[in-house]
């Protein structure tokens, strides 16, 4: 039995929250070493870390979901093309699967919004 379509907006929120929490953890790793970040930090990684913490936090609560997700989609695309593609064309071989997935999940969120359980939805109702 499939999940009823009436759950779509709620499951969109669940997906947004889970993806944002995992994305947020990348920034926490960069700044706080939880877990330890595996390479030395450089200015580009500091920018990525700020976007991961601030943007991920905003997506967790669903605040300004569409513009934030659009920016994070672009950041993930840049991460793939700069850090992973030079190591080879296949994401499974160059370690870029997460960057590709983040890019397209965030692009979807930029189009779909934050779902039923988001600050954006609460602001629209009020």
TrEMBL record:
Pfam families (alphabetical): DoxX
Spans through the membrane: 12-32, 44-61, 68-87, 99-119
Keywords recorded for this protein, A-Z: Cell membrane, Membrane, Transmembrane, Transmembrane helix
Localization of this protein: Cell membrane
Topological category with respect to the lipid bilayer: Multi-pass membrane protein
Lineage top rank: taxon: Bacteria
Family indicated by similarity: Belongs to the DoxX family.
Protein name: DoxX family protein
Organism: Sphingomonas albertensis
Organismal lineage: Bacteria, Pseudomonadati, Pseudomonadota, Alphaproteobacteria, Sphingomonadales
